[in-house]
Amino acid sequence: MPASTSSEQVETVGDGRLPVAGSSAGTSSIEEVALAPSANIAADAVTLPGARRSTRWPRRRRALGLVVPAALLGAWWLCSAQGIVSTKLLPGPWDVAEAAWDFVAGTRVDVLAGVVPFSGAAPEHLSASILRWLSGYGLAVAIGLTIGLGIGLSRLVADLVDPLVQALRAIPIFAWLPLALVWFGLGEGAARYLVFIGAVSPILIATADSVSRVPGAYVETALMLGTPRRSLARRVYVPAALPGIVTGLRLGLTLGWMSVIVGELTGTQTGIGAMMNAAREGGRLDQILVGMLCFAVVGLLGDTILRAATRPFVAWSDR
User: Fold this and answer.
1) How far is CA 264 from CA 9, 181, 309, in A?
2) Residue 76: which domain range?
């Protein structure tokens, strides 16, 4: 005998069972229902063979990331040892290692005013650059998220602001340098402003685009479940757009860190960019490469920390 339709009818989604309208299972929050398809897909993904391999051998996967850098380091050493590339153009890895050791653990020497120190000055330069980076990036996050949400949620705001945003983000970071010097003078203000300029665009664009692309089905489901329209941004748009927003935060973090060197060309006496500029004037390519290594290591650590901090909020979107 055909089963009759009852108030406890359910609709199968993925491998889970999702109550539909009229179910006696009670009302659920929009995070549990509207985003259930994505959550179930993510839950199914962890049972795939590739996913099992990724959780079974995490150390092997991390070790794979060292293969290409090790190969490049070996090729660099070989070219230097065999004289294929002149050390005047590219110092050998051992020369760079010695300079790096001097930068980190060398004896600090008192220098004249206006001269950028190198030996033993790593803590001073790194702390100055990181502080400028984080202060400019923090301001970029606050402004980028605010304007991005406004553009993504409101067509009126998008029509008013988006053309200006698209035009401003096309201006190269170096083009802002003279203006920053006029507005803020030499030193900290101009440096942090340039970091902000470098970081804000990807955050703003990623936020606006992710919010505007939230599926309409999520919104309709939320309204059917009784979610007030004033709560849609908090309970639907932002949670669904979080993966794209996090991507924008990561891009902004990296571009802001890359902009530090531009900001430190504004007359600062401390910072990795200031050290590299002084090394360029002195023709010390080994010290320049030490500065590049510092940028690479700190940038990687910053991105790793941000990914770890945001992973709990976007775990449902993992595939």
Assistant:
1) 64, 11, 28
2) 67-95
Alpha-carbon span 255 to 238, nearest angstrom: 23
Residue labelled with tokens 């600062």: 268
Distance CA 44, CA 182 (A): 56
How does pLDDT run across 159-169, given as a tens digit for each residue?
Answer: 999 999 999 99
**Which residues, 6+ apart, have CB-to-CB distance to 199 below 8 Å?**
136, 137, 140, 141, 144, 252, 253, 255, 256, 259
Domain match, 163 and 271 both: yes
Query: Which structure tokens are listed for 259?
Result: 């902009």
Asked if the structure places residue 4 within a domain, the reply is no
**Tens digits of residue pLDDT in 248-269:** 999 999 999 999 988 888 778 8
Q: Are residues 30 and 155 in the same domain?
A: no
Reported pTM: 0.76
Gap between the Cα atoms of 200 and 245, Å rounded: 12
Q: What are phi and psi of 13, to 5 degrees?
A: -125, 115
DSSP helix/strand/coil, 88: coil
- In the three-class reduction of DSSP (H, G, I as helix; E, B as strand; rest coil), residue 178 is classed as helix
**Total Cβ atoms within 10 A of residue 59:** 7
Q: Is 53 helix (H, G, I), strand (E, B) or coil?
A: helix
